Amino acid sequence: MSTHLAAALVTFCLLQIFIVARMGGSLLLHLGIIIAIGGFAVAARGLEQRWEMLDPSGLSSQGLALRFRRDLVQLWSASIIGGLLWIPVSIIFRALFG
Questions:
Q1: How remote is the C-alpha of 73 from its chain's centroid?
Q2: Mean residue pLDDT across the chain
Q3: Residue 53 and residue 37: Cα distance in Å, rounded?
Q4: Rg of the chain's alpha carbons, rounded to an integer?
């Protein structure tokens, strides 16, 4: 899970940076990126701690595999969709503040 968390965090960061840079991001949007990355990192650490607790829990391999796949889908969905959410934020910001 740690490898997927690290890759998802990098994907999340790169999507945000690329989108804000292409949309002509201001300092305020860049500060928003820092806050969003911090929030994602905290959530990722919580997921990693959950998997550290699940490891010795004695669940069957099928139960662990099912939880792993579900968590991966949620993690990657949040990473990609969260990064793409900067498109409407940038459009609205540009419309309001020029």
A1: 12
A2: 87
A3: 24
A4: 16
* Contact yes or no for 76/5 (Cβ under 8 A): no
CA distance 3 to 1: 5
Q: What is the mean pLDDT of residues 65-81?
A: 93
Mention every residue, 6+ apart, whose C-beta is less than 8 A from residue 39.
none
Residue 29's pLDDT is 83
User: What pLDDT is stored for residue 77 in this prediction?
Assistant: 94
DSSP characters over 27-76: HHHHHHHHHHHHHHHHHHHHHHHHHHHHGGG---HHHHHHHHHHHHHHHH
Amino acid at 12: F
